[in-house]
Amino acid sequence: MIGMDFISFIILLVISIVVAGILHFVFKFYIMPGWLSYVSKVIIGWVGAWLGSPVFGYWWKGLNYKEVYIVPAILGSLSILIFAVDFIKTRASVFKSTG
Fold first, then answer.
1. For the chain, the helix, strand and coil percentages under 3-state DSSP, each to the nearest 5
2. How far is the C-alpha of 45 from the C-alpha of 34, rounded, in Å?
3. Which sequence spans correspond to the domains of the chain?
4. Rounded to whole angstroms, how far apart are CA atoms 10 and 15?
5. What does 2-27 look like in DSSP terms, one character per residue?
6. What is the 8-class DSSP label of residue 63?
7. pLDDT means over runs of 10, the chain (99 residues)
8. End-to-end CA distance of the chain
């Protein structure tokens, strides 16, 4: 997946945009409101979608484009976004409580 083509990049970008949009605008799962927070989620979510297939596996052969498997990419994007937001919220609360 290092040398991916443009279509693979776009597929991962669309997955990241949708997953980040659902988390940010529907579930209000963010550190701060606003578009900058959403755009940073899209970037982090793209990395998660890119790592999704190598980490979660290559399954559901019908839902793939070359090496981009859709369901593992969605799971990868979702998991890294939840981890990133939760990690930063936890770190912020630790710094706030220690003063």
1. 75, 5, 25
2. 17
3. 6-98
4. 9
5. TT--HHHHHHHHHHHHHHHHIIIIIS
6. S
7. 87 98 95 93 97 91 91 97 94 76
8. 44
